[in-house]
Amino acid sequence: MSPTISLLLGLLLLFFGGELLVRGSVALALKMRISTLVVGMTVVSFATSAPELFVSLQAVLNGSNDIAFGNVIGSNIANITLVLGVTALIFRVKISDQTATLNYPVLLLASLIFGAVLFYFNGIPQEVGFLFIFLLLLFTWLLISKSRKENLKSATDEDKLLEEASLDSLFKSLFFLIAGILVLKFGADYLVDGTIAIAKKFEISERVIAVTVVAIGTSIPELATSIVAALKKEHNLAVGNLIGSNIFNIGSVLGLTSIIKPILITDSNILDRDIIWMLVFALLVLVISLIPKKNNITNLKGFLLVFLYSVFILSTYIN
Fold first, then answer.
1. C-beta of residue 54 within 8 angstroms of C-beta of residue 247
2. pLDDT tens for each residue of 36-72
3. In the Cβ-directed half-sphere of 172, how many Cα atoms lie within 13 Å?
4. Residues 214/216/217/219 CA torsion (nearest 10 deg)
5. Model pTM?
């Protein structure tokens, strides 16, 4: 199969996988009595982070540690700039109070801890990987417990979920989730294989390929899921998917990978520029979500995020 066909097939599979994942997760939210925001932050986020996990684990086992780091860092940058920006171009993204006061601060904290670990250890040792997994599980448990106790679903969301639940049984919801995950997995495989084959023709370094081409490829599930959620007016799912995915990329992807095999940095650019870009963008999204209209990312802000991501990509290849 040619790289171009592989890339196009990957895009197609990822879109349909996102459709299945959204439908299953929305129905499952009511049955578990938790909000679509929490489902997006947990179930959907873990599912859409699966490509990053497969890519990073395979890279480390092959001795390509820079691909593992570049994949996660680049994917996190793409999620909060490219994916969030494109989603905002489709409709104005509303940031819920829980996202602004809990979920986003946790993302910032996770990003800062990740950066500190890289600078201190020049990688991620096995014991830190166990710590990442523990903190992720703790956060997930607190998130689900808080949602169930406070019943975060609004009346409008309740009506939508009830309508969805009347059509889909629990078995059907789980089937859509599992099918969506599988389709996303194969779609990501095809897309990443195609993009890497194309990029290697230009003799680009592993780190540059990982932080740009591979990262975009593994972020396609988040893009597909958020776009489908946007079209279905599932605001919480669209935003929760992105924030949760970034947290899962750090906690589960790098956590699980480093437990299996410690990850060491071999390309200094990961510390000197890539992680800095990720932290700056994380803070920038917080600022633009509050100014001038609080807890809203408008179409104009979406365009700005996409533009800044383009600047990041261009500077990566020029450097």
1. no
2. 667 777 777 777 787 888 888 888 888 888 889 999 9
3. 9
4. 120
5. 0.82
Tell me the H-state helices in the chain: 3-31, 36-39, 45-48, 50-61, 65-78, 84-90, 97-98, 104-121, 126-150, 155-167, 170-200, 206-209, 215-231, 235-248, 255-260, 269, 275-290, 299-318
Q: Which residues pair with 264 in a beta bridge?
A: 123
- The span from the CA of 261 to the CA of 239, in Å, is 32
Other beta carbons within 10 Å of 289:
22
Length of the chain: 319
Residue matched to tokens 């509303």? 94
Residue appearing with tokens 């809203």: 296
The residue to which tokens 């106790």 are assigned: 149
Residue identified by tokens 């800044």 is 308
Instruction: Say which amino acid occupies 21.
Output: L
Report yes or no: 210 and 70 within 8 Å, Cβ to Cβ. yes
Bridge-based pairing of strands 263-264 and 123-124 is antiparallel
Kindly give, in sequence order, each residue whose CB lies less than 8 Å from that of residue 45, ignoring residues fewer than 6 positions away. Answer: 240, 241, 243, 244, 245, 247, 248
* Spatial CA neighbour of 271 closest among 60, 118, 76: 118
What is the Cα–Cα distance from 123 to 86, expressed in whole angstroms? 32
Q: What angle do CA 142, 224, 40 make, to 5 degrees?
A: 10
